[in-house]
Amino acid sequence: MYGYLVRRLMQFAVVLLLGSVAVWAFVLLLPGDPATVLIGSDATDAELAATRARMGLDQPFLAQYGIWIGHAVTGDLGASYYSGQPVLTELMDRIPATVQLAGFTLVLTLLIAVPVGIVVALRPYSAVGRVLQGYLTVGLAVPAFWLGLLLIIVLAVQLRWLPASSDFVPLWQDPGAALTSTILPASAIAVHTSSVTARFLANSLGEVMGKDYIRTARAKGVPERDVIRRHAVRNAALPTVTIVGLQLGSFLGGTVVIEAVFNYPGLGRLLYTAIGERDYALVQGGVLFVVATFLLLNLLVDVAYGVLDPRIRLT
Amino acid sequence: MSAPSAGAPAVAPQRRRMAAARRFARSRSAVVGAVGLATLAVMALLAPIVAPFDPAAQGGEPLLGPSGTYWLGTDQLGRDIVSRMIHGARGSLLVAAGAAAVGAGIGVPLGLVAGYLGRWADAVAMRVVDLLLAVPGILLALVIIAVLGPGRLNLILAIGIGAIPEFARLTRVATLEVRERDFVLAARGMGASTPDTMTRTVLPNVLGPVMVQFVITASMAVVIEAGLSFLGLGTPPPAPSWGGMLQDARSYLYQSPTYGLFPGICLAATVFFLERIGRGLQLAVGGGGPRAARGIGRGAV
């Protein structure tokens, strides 16, 4: 276990380092002088000189990176060109909204995917099983942002049950309003992600049901319900955790289009706007945050995996 | 058991391929997908002939509902929606195929080298792959377009680069499986150089899962392209695109609620056809298993 942990931590550190280099180099790849790129062409000479000094543009590349990463680890990611606010403040403004949407979507995804996956795996040819397989087929094919548009057309424009655009209402301030404003974007995403997860769970459950230990459990008289719950689902759930972890990562910054459809003030839309406004310090900070969070999530999933399944530690 | 495709690699590859093709043709869902996609592709190719109107002609009243003349109505400039949808298929299919080709073109060699050489090459390649995986596909595409600028070729590159990790991982795993097998050792023993062994002996044996991934990637690329066009960063506006049409539809939800329906159906149908083909291929070549769903995990837009 110890060796596995150390190896996994090393990988995490290396990828994070690579990521920070890529994010830093991003500004150099853009056409134009990096200092101008970062603070905009209408900056005064004094501002430009200050940015140059801050970035150390007269120094060798390695030193420039050192200066940048030195600032970044202390939380200084520069200032937004558009608002003048520190990048960190801008990000912190949006992170609660993104986390709330991601949380809602994750809960919905699991609420749908687990029962659907189990039924499809165990009773594929029953009436319910066939209907649910239909759901999986449709859910995989329908793009989340189009489904979001349809939900708006039907539920907000025609029936007027729910608001067409989703402002961010924190769950801890007004749970009811938080639910009604987040439920539409969350459902639009969850139909797709739950189909992926359910199909994956159904596949691995189908594989597990053919294993010898299931036959053994049945042979020694374990009731079928317990065979499924304690022996099959637990074993099939492990690989599914990886998929859910990847999906959770993709909710951070990967829901740009859904956020645009619903006017939801999340991280994705902040970055999209920042790219449009050439607010590159903000783009750098945002992408660095997304990469670091994703890697951390994955690390946690893998460590949990190693704790739960001793076989993993050996590979 | 997970990869019976590598079961009898040394004997008669043609016969194996024929058998796989027969299995594909026997699977009903695969045939449905293949016929559907072929129909779409023909419509896209023959768009100027098939489409009832010029997609740019502002012939009708704006935002008409479906009627005899304009089967699905007109958009905000009075352009025929059917014609724009048919022409929009071109961009979608082109970008999808292109992006999958870019992903495979870089990812497969990367995975092959990583899996076959192991050690440092493996460690370096896999960390790069981990990094690419850490950025959601659409966000990565947005950033790459910010660097490269707009345009169809850049769009293909931007989406394709995001698809490298899946190809690389899959090829690496498949390569590891065949690397120490007798026919590979035999080829080396007879004096084949390392690049030769990789391309002539190992590569043909990992192509099955790569084909499956190609189709899955194309289906994700269709959605990402539409998402980017929806945001105004995909196919540039005067040219019709499904994502761009959905963006227009969103602006006129109250005036023309049916507009948003049709381009989305095209999108969903394309993804559905590709997904069916992917499943059929998977059954035919025996690649993937539940792991093939991996790539889709990042598809949410």
TrEMBL record, chain A:
* Protein name per Swiss-Prot or TrEMBL: ABC transporter permease
Q: Where are the transmembrane segments?
A: 12-30, 101-122, 134-157, 177-201, 236-262, 282-308
Topology in the lipid bilayer is annotated as: Multi-pass membrane protein
GO cellular component, alphabetical, reads: plasma membrane
Q: Which CDD domains match?
A: TM_PBP2
Coiled-coil region: none
Q: Where is the ABC transmembrane type-1 domain?
A: 95-301
Please name the taxonomic classification of the source: Bacteria, Bacillati, Actinomycetota, Actinomycetes, Streptosporangiales
Q: What is stated as this protein's family in its record? A: Belongs to the binding-protein-dependent transport system permease family.
Keywords for the protein's UniProt record, in alphabetical order: Cell membrane, Membrane, Transmembrane, Transmembrane helix, Transport
Q: Where in the cell is it found?
A: Cell membrane
Record Pfam families: BPD_transp_1, BPD_transp_1_N
* Main subcellular location of this protein, as a coarse class: membrane
Q: Which GO terms describe its biological process?
A: transmembrane transport
